[in-house]
Amino acid sequence: MNRTEFIAVTAIILFVAFALGWFAHWLVHRFVRIGQSDMDELDRMAQALHEAEEQRDQAVAYFQNREAELTNQMAQLEAELEAAMDGLRDARREAEELRAYVERMHQGQ
């Protein structure tokens, strides 16, 4: 094989390799191509996901605020209950003292 034949064979091999590469590229893009309807659907899904995340964040914030309100209300009610229990305890003690006083007065007569 002389120099001219070698150059010709090398050129043919390179051209065939280029043609096969181009054909493979075309074939891959032909099957992988994303249509406009698919892109529209992806956009709708992304928008729906974004809205769902916003709603979730709003719900979490609402429940955190509600939990804080209820915790505060519960603390107030516990304080009121404690005060009522103290008042009831004092009233019972005073009633017991009055009963004892009345009994002593009856025994003294």
Structure characterization notes:
This protein has helices spanning 3-32, 36-108. The chain is mainly alpha-helical. It has one domain. The longest helix has 73 residues, at 36-108. The N and C termini lie far apart (149 Å). Residues 60-101 form a coiled coil. Keywords: Coiled coil, Membrane, Transmembrane, Transmembrane helix. The chain crosses the membrane at residues 6-28.
Outline the secondary-structure elements:
Elements: H1 3-32, H2 36-108
Brief rundown of the structure:
The chain has helices at 3-32, 36-108. With 109 residues, the chain is mainly alpha-helical.
Question: Could you give a short account of the major beta sheet?
Answer: none
Tell me the number of structural domains: 1
Tell me the series of helices and strands, N- to C-terminal.
HH
Number of helices: 2
Q: Please give the oligomerization state of what you see.
A: single chain
Rg (C-alpha, Å): 45 Å
Helicity range:
over 70%
Strand content: under 5%
Work out the number of β strands: 0
Shape: rod-shaped
Estimate the mean pLDDT confidence: 93
Question: Helix/strand/pairing class, anyone?
Answer: mainly alpha
Ranges where pLDDT stays below 50 over 5 or more residues in a row are none
Keywords: Coiled coil, Membrane, Transmembrane, Transmembrane helix
Coiled coil: 60-101
Transmembrane segments: 6-28
